[in-house]
Design goal:
With 115 residues, the chain is mainly beta. The chain is 0% helix and 54% strand. The strands form two sheets. Strands 2, 4, 5, 6, 9, 10 and 11 form a seven-stranded mixed beta sheet that branches. The chain has a four-stranded antiparallel beta sheet with strand order 1-3-8-7, with no helix packed on it. The chain starts with a strand and ends with a strand.
């Protein structure tokens, strides 16, 4: 099983980034997918999640209206489009796959928002 995040980097406040998480080794279309983030010294928090079929999404209040989660089950990939980025969005972003009590984590990708 592998979850490989990409797309992180350094951007200025107000900028945009698109994160991707490529999955392999399990039946991606059966799993709900989520993005979490963790800043230094803080807990890992849920950012957004999407149901297995993509029809249902949820967002943390802090990112509503700025971030969009989506998935392409044909490509075994989940995305996080991040717009209007703020310095407080700086964190390491992780994707998580979950089916019932079974879950997998990726290694994360760093997002830094700074002028």
């Amino acid at each position: 099983v592998q979850l490989v995040e990409s797309g992180g980097g350094l951007t200025q406040p107000g900028g945009s980034l698109r994160l991707s998480c490529a999955a392999s080794g399990f039946t991606f279309s059966m799993y709900a997918m989520s993005w979490y983030r963790q800043a230094p010294g803080k807990e890992r928090d849920l950012v957004a999640r999407i149901s297995s079929g993509g029809g249902n999404t949820d967002y943390a209040d802090s990112v509503k209206g700025r971030f969009t989660i989506s998935r392409d089950n044909a490509k075994n990939t989940v995305y996080l489009q991040m717009n209007s980025l703020k310095p407080e969005d700086t964190a390491r972003y992780y994707c998580k796959a979950q089916f019932g009590s079974r879950y997998y984590w990726g290694q994360g990708t760093q997002v830094t928002v700074s002028s």
